[in-house]
Amino acid sequence: MEHSQDSRGGQSSRFREDFAALVNQLAGEWRNAAPGSVELRDVLIEHLGTEPDELPTIGEDVPAHRLTDIDIALSAVADADPDAKLVGVRSMQRHHSSLQDLVSDQPGMSSPVGAVEYANLPTGPDSERAVVAFGVRLFRYRGQPVAVLQRAANPQYGSMSARVEVVAADRELVAALLAEIRALAVERSVLRGQVVSLTANEYGPSAGGVTFVARPDIPADRVILPEGTLDRIHRHVLSLATVKAQLQAAGQHLKRGVLLYGPPGTGKTHTVRHLIGSTPDTTVLLLTGSSLGFIGEAAAIARAHQPAMVVLEDVDLIAMDRHFDAHGPKPLLFELLDAMDGLDTDADVVFLLTTNRVDLLEQALAQRPGRVDLAVEVPLPDRDARAQLVRLYAGELPFSDQAIDRWADQSEGATASFAKEAVRRTVLRAALAGHPPTDDDLLGALADLNSDAERLSRSLMGVGGDDRPSFDPDDPVGFGPEPGLYPGVTFASAAAPTAYSSTLELTFDEPGRAGANADPDPSAGSGPSVEPPEPAERAERAEQSKPVKPSPPADSGEPSAPS
C-alpha cells in the first residue's frame, strides 16, 4: 500500500515538473513569436530610472461605479505632462497580476507592451466615455517620474473593485498624487447633477454600477394634491436652497428627511418626479426594490456630491425584509436611519421617502427622532381632485364639464392611477368603435371599470381597499394569508411575533409587538412567547374581520343585502 502511494506521489511530482516546463516553453515561444516586442519592465526601468521592483507600490481600490471619475481625474493629472505616455499589456495573466507581478523578472512572468484596453462607460443618459480598463500611465508629477496602473473591476477574475496602483521613488509624492486624484474625481464626477440609480453586482452584495436616468419634467400644475400640500413639500425640499446661507448663519441644519405616505396609486411617485425635475443642479440617487440595500453607498455619494437628494421608494419594503431577524425592526431599516443621522448637519442632502405602509415605519421613526422632519399624507383624491385628474389625463380630448363631473361623482375612492387608466380605456373604446372619444365613452369606460369583472383590476390600481384582504392584527406572521388558503389561514412558527401597530405610544418591549423579545421556547427562559392561534380560531377571526356592507333602514321598504 505504501509503495502504491509513493508511486502515485512520484507520478504527481513528475507531472507538475513537466507541466511547469511546458508553461515556460510556451511563454518562451510567445516571446520568440513576437520579435522586437518591448517588455513592460524595460519601459518602466527607462521611465523611472531604476528597477521597478526596488520601489514601493501603493494601491487603492475604487468602487466600480467610480472608474469613470478616476479616469477623468488621472487623465487631467497625466496630461499636465506633455511627455506622458499610456501603454497596454499583452500578458495573458494581467487580470490576475499586480503591477509588481507584471514587471517581475521571474521566469514565465513576461509582460510585453501592447494595446491599451478601453471600456465605453456612460457619463449621462445619452453620453458615454472611453475609459481605460487596463493600462499603465507614465508621466512626471511635480517633476518626478511615476507609473500608474489603472484597471477596471473584473468580477469573473475575482476583482470586485476597480484599482489604481502607483510606483514611484517617493512615498509622500505618491500620497499627494492619490489625494489629488481623489479630489479631482469628486470635483469632476460624472454623477454630479445627474439622476442615477445604483445597480446590483451579480457577483456580490455591493453596488456594481450606476444607471443614468433622464431627469423628468413635470410642472407643478400637473401634480394634483390637496390644497396647500405641494406648497408644504416645496418649502421643505426646494425653497431651502434659497435661504441656505441664513440657516447656516443661524446654526440650523440643512440635512432633512421628508416622508410621503398614503394608499397606493395616489401620486407619491408622481410628486417625487416633479421634485426631481424641479432641482436641475441636484444629484439624485434613486433607490427602489433590491437597490434599497445600497443605502450606505447612496449616502456616501450624496455626501460627496451636494446638493443631493436620496429617494427611497416604497421604503416599507425595508421594514418587511424577512431575511433578517423577525423579532423587530430590521437591520436595513436601522442602516437607513443611521445613514440619515450620520451626515453632517450642514450637509445639503434631502432624504425623500415614500411608503404605502406608514404603520410599518412609524414606531421605528418615533424611536429614532430627528430623521424625518416632515411627514406628508398623499390621500385618495376627493371629488374635485378626481375631476382635475380626468382633465389632466384627457389633455385635449373633448369631454364636457358635465360628463367629467358625473365621472367624479361616480368614482369615489378612485386613485390617480385609476383615473389615468380610465381615460386610456375611453380612448381605446372609441378607437375600436371607429369614432373620436365622446362623453358616452368616458362614462362607459368608468362603468366597465366599476363592474364586478374588473374587481381585481381596481384592486391593482389601489381602488376598493375594503375588497382587498385586510391585515389581520392577530396574524402571527403579519403578511396576510398564504396563496391557496382560505382567508385568515397562514403558516407561522411559534416564534413569529404578532404584527405591527401604528400607535406611537408602543415600545419595542411590548409582548407580541414588533421588536418584542419573543422566545420561541417557553421553557428557555424569560421573555414572553407568542403562540399562534389554531387554524379554526384564525378562520373565525378572519370571518369576523370581513367588511360588513350596511343594510338599509328597517323602515325603508328595501330588502337587506344577502350575506
From TrEMBL:
Keywords: ATP-binding, Hydrolase, Nucleotide-binding, Protease. One of its GO terms (biological process) is proteolysis. Residues 254-382 form the AAA+ ATPase domain. The keyword Nucleus does not apply. GO terms for molecular function: ATP binding; ATP hydrolysis activity; peptidase activity. Residues 535-546 have a biased composition (Basic and acidic residues). SMART domains: AAA. Belongs to the AAA ATPase family. This is 26S protease regulatory subunit. It comes from Nakamurella aerolata. The lineage of its organism: Bacteria, Bacillati, Actinomycetota, Actinomycetes, Nakamurellales.
